[in-house]
Amino acid sequence: AYGRVGMRPVDMITGPGNAYVAEAKRQLFGLVGIDLPAGPTEILIIADDSADPALVATDLLGQAEHGPDSPAWLITTSAKLGREVISEIERQLLTLPTAAIASAAWSRWGEVAVVRDDDAAIALSDQYAPEHLEVLTSRNDYYLDRLKNYGSLFVGEESTVAYGDKGVGTNHTLPTGRAARYTGGLWVGKFLKTVTYQRLTPEASESIAPIMGRMCASEGMLAHELTATVRQQRYAQRRRSAS
Length: 243
Description:
Pfam families: Histidinol_dh (PF00815)
CATH class of the largest domain: Alpha Beta
Strand content: 5-15%
Largest sheet: 5 strands, parallel
Order of helices and strands: EHEEHEHHEHEHEHHH
Protein name: Histidinol dehydrogenase
Strand order of the largest sheet: 5-4-3-6-7
Number of strands: 7
GO biological process, one term: L-histidine biosynthetic process
Keywords: Metal-binding, Oxidoreductase, Zinc
Structural class: alpha/beta
Cofactor: Zn(2+)
CATH superfamily of the largest domain: Nitrogenase molybdenum iron protein domain
Distance between the termini: 59 Å
């Protein structure tokens, strides 16, 4: 952001990082642009009774090992599956090399929500607006067509978050902390900016000036009003002189 020897200051800083990187980007925002504010990594899995509880548990812990502040959430339409996943997590933590971190995350931030049906699962997931969302159900296409708020979606047991992070090509710089309600991940558009311009004819300027002037006056912006009034009078005078 401030430049260094051999490099001029940049206009934008992007990309993932740890808590220190996130804080640095937060403090620099305004001096430079950033892609998005990033918090602890998140995973939410939607699963029904067709899902393999061992696989669900593995994928939850796969993200929980990022740090003790990494949420791992399960939404399921099957209370039985929910209980089995909890048992599986406890069993896998006994042998997981990163169990100290993953266990802390699961203890603090792990959740299992049992909902009545698929639509309730979709509604709850959209409220969470997770960074990473996996769907492991017998109706994956139903979910794919209806889910709205997520950073990246992994459909079916054949895909998993680690694939997206490391190699299959989907985005790895994603919104966290419910930011997926209003933005997606980093993409080429983040490096583009939209600029606009306006050009009016004298006739158009004269025509719109009274309306704009009244709007400005109603807001108490009298100098604003004057910029419209001056143009209205100027172009009206020119029009009369030319006729």
